[in-house]
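just leaving the lab so this will be short. what follows is a protein written twice so to speak, once as letters and once as structure tokens for the fold. can you read through it and tell me how you think this chain folds. thanks a lot i owe you, the record is right below.

___
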Amino acid sequence: MRAKLTYAVTAAVLVFYFVLVGSRGVILIETGTPVTVAFGLAVLILPVIGLWFLWKNTQFVRRANQLAAELDAEGGLPVDELRRTPSGRIDRDSADEVFARRKAETEAAPDDWRSWFRLAVAYQDARDTPRARKAMQRAIALHRASK
């Protein structure tokens, strides 16, 4: 719940920032000189890109959460079996062991979104966020195709 609240607050702050930047772009355009119009248009592009990125990221998180809820209802969410250091950090060897199992599971069933979801969790546990995101995107795509 804390993560959702943090995400919502961050998104609200970003939207406020985008509106503020966009208004500055409009002010530059209203000045009417060629240079300020060009700068104004350039400034307006930033909020558009930012809003698009925020929207895509929100959609990704929403879809990943839907998959997690569905997998939880099936009783298939991965169990946290990772060993931890005394400070609470995940033991790297433990994460590697779980990752190897998840990778083998995904290779055995490459068209199963569930195995890709669990692989994404294993990547995240191994602190490989780019691959975790790609694996989750694959899980989402397979889930959408199966519907």
